Amino acid sequence: MDSSRRLPKVSAHDLLEIVRRIVVSRSPLQHSVRAAVDELILLPPIRYYIQSYTQKQINAFATHASRYFELYHPSGSIEISHTSRYSHRTGKSELCILATRNLSSGTVITELKGSMANLTDEEDRELKRTDLRNSDIRRDFSVIHSKSMKKNHLFLGPARFVNHDCDNNCELFREGKYITFRVLRPISMGEEITAHYGDSYFGRKNRHCLCETCEKKGRGGYAPDHTDDDIPSDSSLSDSEDSDDESDTSSAPEDDVVKRQVNLDERRTRRGVYAVVSKEEDQSDESDDEDGDVVPLAGAVDIPSAGEVEMGDATSDLSSLPSSRAPSNAGPSTVTKVSSTSRSISSLSSLSSDGASPVPKGNAYPSIISTRRQKAEATRLSSSTPVQDDSASSSRRLTRSSSSVTPSQVTPSKGKGKQKEQSSCSTPTPQKPNNKVKEEDLRTLRTRPVAASDLVKEGSSKADVLRGPDGKPLPLCATCHNILPVISVDHKIVWGLGLEKESKKKKAKQDCPRCMRHYAIYGESWPRRSPLPGCTSTLNPTPREETTPIDSSRKVTHKVLPVLDRKIAAVASSKRKSVEAEAEEEHDRPAKKFKVDINPAKKRKRKRGRPRLRPLSPPPVKVEDKDEEEPLHPQGFKSQGRRMNGRFERTVSSSASPQKGYDPDSPQNASVNRAQRALEREKAKQLLEREILAKRGLSDGEIDRIAKNGRLGDHQPPLRKVFPKRSTSFRTHNLFSRPTPMNFAARAWANSVMSDDGSSDDDKGPVTPEDSQSPPAIIEVEMEEWDRGPSLIVTAPAIPPAYKPSPFSFARRRWSSLSTSPVEEQSKPSGEARLPRGMERILGKGRDSSNSIPLLTNRFMGHSLDEEDPFSYAFQGGVKRPLLLQHTYPSDVTYTQESVTNLSFAPPSFIAPNFANPGWESDLSDS
Ligand SMILES: C[S@@+](CC[C@H](N)C(=O)[O-])C[C@H]1O[C@@H](n2cnc3c(N)ncnc32)[C@H](O)[C@@H]1O
């Protein structure tokens, strides 16, 4: 870790622009954040800054930056903001995390990420060291100590801005590589996200804690008996809070010089932070050894790559928040230690934030754990009244919850040196160096931050609740109605107390910096973030969010009740009528009933999207087909129809038993009746013809001969172009009565596909006819559709450019060649393939095979095309056929059993068949 490195000076405006683009891009979180990081890295100061780093370190930086950018995404639910809660002790504003929407308990705030970066001993020491020559160096690190590892770690990411509350509303947990937070109880919008650091983090029994709960309950730092005796002096602190941390004992020699000086402006992030203390540890807290409450974090945190260590926390500036970190000034070296002997607190915690910030001489802003004198002073000033301002110039309470300043609305600093510091740390906080506020102002105890939700809850006038010590109402943010904050940086108030307003607009309504920033980014008033279409929150939905908001402005009076009743009744009756009408219609329409044949219990919900790769487990699907057993596919599947668009038809469940009793309405019976009637008509016709012939004087023998030669009907129904198997899936009879090329093709496809388990059509890979006669061509097929693996090269039949496969060309060829296509002719020499053993029984015999479409070859599955191999045959309509129209996957493409298993029976779909590329090949001559 290079302590002399300077942080990149990035224009706040540039950062704001990047953040804005995340919002306006309206793209999913990952995309927009990645784009933002890319832009950030391209900014000249950043580019210059990272040039000396390794790729790994740059990557770590990018990851780190992305965690901050993520917060600004419209789907986000938190924001980094300022808090003045501790400023009466620390003399400066600190940062905190606020909820930007209601969060229900159990919600995981995924964007509140943190990670632990391992620190070497040298880095650990280095962090504590102050570079006196370099005023640009600011150290703003949160460091936590892992007891089990006996090491300090940098705590990085937005999670490190979560403050402690004795009644915390979130708990930390580890999620893989990250630390994140789970909501323990409902959090309302604007409320601070808090965690529990441990029971003795802020002194024994947290007696110096300044959390809201302590404030409410009058304990901790707000306890009435919070006396001098309670406040550890340098020595007492060292005694009671001694540390065994080895790194301290090996502190750099220069540290010793200033060991007794307290860095009053540091943000003390101490060991054990965010740790959940076990009972035993609690007991150990009773001892004065504060290390006892240090919870081993090693098991709970992730130790990221070393690169993160190097990157420190520079990106916290990305939030465009005015830093609460005090830029370091040239001056006497300060060390974070309280005393030479007290190490536990200082050494482990004082690495944070403003370790390099010198305390102006005589400026005794007490830190949270400060000297006895400082504490006593603070207590004296604040003990009598919670908010006591003895400065006439300051008529407001000074410690208020606050927000950040919007970069675009920054008032340029007037102070020269200050301006430099501001720009160097990308904290464009307005500065008015001349506008000094007495130290005492900052020491007054803050009132509990009042959130907008509190105001609503209280329901009282704002003035009643929020009054300053002078009785005057405190200025509120025009948008969120929080008290306008007072933001102090480096012991100077930079925002608030009238500084936020330009002289002309003094009377104008004022927004707090947070709301101003929000508007600058989102173009909408806080807390609205424009919803992105198709962009879901990274959070689990909270019940409150799901419920429809009640428009309280529209009240239901007694007057309107009858009208409402009438309306409801009207809607109900119209619904009832439509249901009845539908039922009647259903009854009148047998075709509809045909559809209902599918057992609804077994009907699965149609799924969309990529076909799932599932093992071949053929369910016993039974397709209703008159009395005859539908031939089983060799793999155990029954055939499934296809529609005109190439999609699978609905599967018919086995429970569909059409023969249960006679139903004159049933389409099946209807078709039988029609056949019978046709037969009778034919018989009548023959009789008539016979009569006519007999009248012409022909003998019976002659009439029989004519009848035999086909001039008379032969007691068969009239000859019609009938397809060998009627698909149960056809809804219309048009396809039968009017055969067209399109109908033909659709018909052919309708019978060609099998079903596996009756689940969604889209879930299954369509089975494609294959053509062994086609010359192979190399087609590069993206496997992404299937397993997101790398591209795979498979061979597929070359499709001549002139040939445009379509149902028409397919059907034309079929119709022209009737039962035998040219391809078929070519395949004939191999002889009519014999059915594999046992298949005859399954398939049945004597079916017209002219329209059969080969179903599946498992050649790609590593099987050879073998007569004995049932996969070598195509089955359709119960007829065995040699494989015709089939793709050839040449032998130079090897599909391992493994890959095929993974893909289920997907391979034919590598060349996803559709009507643009139906998956079969046709002779050029035909087309
Ligand atoms: C992990 S940091 C939290 C972020 C911190 N507010 C900041 O701006 O860096 C922990 C530090 O926040 C402050 N802090 C958090 N909770 C506190 C509490 N309940 N009482 C006093 N100080 C607290 C202390 O300075 C502590 O060392």
Structural commentary:
Helix content is 30%, strand content 9%. It is an alpha+beta fold and 927 residues long. Residues 86, 94-96, 142, 160-161, 163-164, 202, 209-211, 267-270, 273, 324, 349, 353, 368 line the site of S-adenosylmethionine. Residues 218-470, 533-553, 571-682, 753-776, 819-849 are annotated as: Disordered. InterPro entries: SET_dom, SET_dom_sf, Suv4-20/Set9.
Rounded Rg: 41 Å
Task: List the bound ligands.
Answer: S-adenosylmethionine
Q: What's the total number of strands? A: 17
* Strand arrangement in the largest pleated sheet: 4-5-3-8-7
Quaternary assembly: single chain
How far the N terminus sits from the C terminus, by CA atoms, comes to 73 Å
**Which structural category do the helix and sheet elements fall into?**
alpha+beta
Strand residue content: 5-15%
Specify the helix fraction band.
25-40%
Low-confidence stretches: 231-376, 382-463, 535-553, 591-598, 614-640, 651-662, 713-719, 721-736, 751-802, 817-927
Q: Could you report the average pLDDT, rounded to the nearest whole number?
A: 56
Q: Give the biggest beta sheet.
A: 5 strands, antiparallel
The number of distinct helices, counting runs of at least 4 residues, comes to 31
Using the alpha-carbon principal axes, give the shape. elongated
